[in-house]
Automatic annotation (TrEMBL):
It comes from Sinocyclocheilus grahami. The keyword 4Fe-4S does not apply. GO terms for biological process: glycolytic process. This is fructose-bisphosphate aldolase. It is an enzyme of class 4 (lyase).
Amino acid sequence: MTHQFPPLTTEQKKELHEIALRIVSPGKGILAADESIGSMGKRLNQIGVENNEENRRLYRQVLFTADDRIDNCIGGVIFFHETLYQNSDDGVPFVKMIKDKGITIGIKGMFTQQWCTKNGTAFSLCFLCTDNNVVKMIPIHTDPQKD
C-alpha cells in the first residue's frame, strides 16, 4: 500500500525506535487518559458528578498525582486535547507534571509533528509514519490544516 509520506531516514528510524522503547520498556505500559468529553461525561454521571471542564480536570489530576510508585510502571500517557491546557491545583501544567516524571506524552487525534512539538507531545496516535520528515505516531494520515 502506498502513502503520501517519504520513507524514513536512518535518523528518523532511530528516533522512532527510541520513543517506542521509552513507552514500552520492560515493566512499563501506556496510561490511556484520553477520554473525550462525552466519555468523561458517562464516567462522571455514574458517580453523580457534573460533566464540566473543572470536574474533568480534577479527575485527570487524580490520575496524574497517584502514588509515585506507579511512575516506574508508566512509559507513556495518551492525553485528550483538552488535557494539554490543564494545570494541577498548584498551577503546574499536566504536560510538565508528566514530563518531569520521565514519562512520554502522546495525544489522541490527528495532529502534525509541528503541532505536537509545540504542545509538548512526542506522538499522536496510532500508526507509524512521517510528517515533514519527522518521525511520530499518527492516525493513518495527518492533516496539516490542524496546526
